[in-house]
Each structure stands twice: as C-alpha cells, then as structure tokens.
Design goal:
202 residues; alpha+beta; AOC barrel-like; 2 domains; 2 helices; disordered C terminus
C-alpha cells in the first residue's frame, strides 16, 4: 500500500474525509479575517475638518487650580490663577467632543478679569483664546474670543461665554470650580465677527 492509499484508508476508518480538518481550519481563519475587517470599518469615525460654517456648541468645564492673591488695601485685591481641567461639549455641530483646557487669569476686584486659554483635543490640535470677565465670585460673566490655533483649528475664530462657580477655595490657594451656561460658536474662515453670545459691554 502506497502513502496515498494509506491516508485514504485512515480517513475511511475514522469516518473523516482526507484533509477536511485542514479545510475547516482554513475556512475559520478566513471568516475570522472578514469579521475583524468588518469590525475595523465600524470603528471610531474621524472628526470632519472644520469648515467656513458656524458651529454652535454648549458644554461644561470643570477645573482645579492654584491662586496667588495680592491685597490692595481692605476693599481691593488682585489675584493670578492657573486652571486646568476638562471641557465636554454637546450639540450637533460641536467642533469636537472634549478638550483639555488650560487657563491663566489675572483678576482685579475693581477692574475685572483678563486671561488666556488653550484648548487641546485628543489629536493634540489646539485652539487659543483671550478671556475677559466682570463681576465677583458669586455673580460673574466671562467671555472668550478665539484668536488662532494649530492643526484643524488654524485660523479659528468665534466666541464663547460662561459664568464660573467656585466649589473649593481655601487659604492655601487651591481652587476648584465648574462653568455654568457654557455656550459659543466657532468657525475656520475669514470672518472676524461671531454672533453675539452675551458679550458684556464696557
């Protein structure tokens, strides 16, 4: 009996056709590859690039920071604060889902607040903004104006506004808080003036 006849004989004894085990394994492997490719195609979709149309959004920014205070007499004080936290946006036309936001502010209880902010998305692209505000820790209004950016936010323009509620303030300078009524609009284009979002008048 030659080798071929021997393999066929073993297959008949075991009730299995020759090579059917290998064929079945190959079939499972191909099916697995198709399944994996299908799952990959349903993965996270890339965010579309920002266009010239206005994108409106709402959101919530929560942050912690450290504040240094300088007293200017009994009724006036100035402070410098650095905040860092997470901004989660909502709305069908939001520019992205979330950002890491870093802000440095200089606040004078008499003249108001000025600051600078950087929004960084999950790709590392950044949007830069200038902030102005008025009021006190209980009643305040802050407005940010986009002044440029990197990556998909290069040439960005627009504004956003919110009020700030402090949750923690202690004598060591640690502060923590959350935005209220956070909303705005953004675009990448040639327009320099964004729709009003409650910008305080001086």
């Amino acid at each position: 009996m030659n080798r071929k006849e021997e393999r066929e004989s073993v297959g008949r004894v075991r009730g299995v056709k020759p090579w059917c085990g290998i064929s079945r394994m190959l079939g499972l492997a191909v099916a697995g590859m198709v399944l994996l490719n299908g799952c990959g195609s349903r993965g996270k979709e890339a965010e579309p690039p920002l266009g010239n149309e206005w994108r409106e959004f709402q959101g919530t920014w929560t942050a912690t920071g450290n504040r240094q205070t300088l007293r200017l007499g009994e009724e006036r004080q100035a402070s410098i604060t650095r905040f860092e936290g997470s901004l989660i946006l909502t709305g069908n036309s939001r520019p992205d889902v979330g950002f890491r936001v870093e802000v440095i502010t200089m606040n004078d209880t008499t003249t108001g607040l000025i600051g600078r902010g950087v929004w960084t998305d999950e790709r590392g692209d950044q949007a830069f903004s200038e902030l102005k505000g008025e009021g006190n820790s209980a009643e305040n209004k802050i407005v940010g104006t986009f002044v440029g950016g990197t990556g998909r936010y290069k040439g960005v323009s627009g504004t956003y506004s919110f009020s700030w509620r402090f949750v923690i303030e202690n004598d060591e300078g640690t502060v923590q808080g959350q935005s209220q009524g956070f909303k705005g609009q953004v675009r990448v284009g040639t327009a320099q003036v964004a729709p009003e979002v409650g910008v305080p008048t001086s």
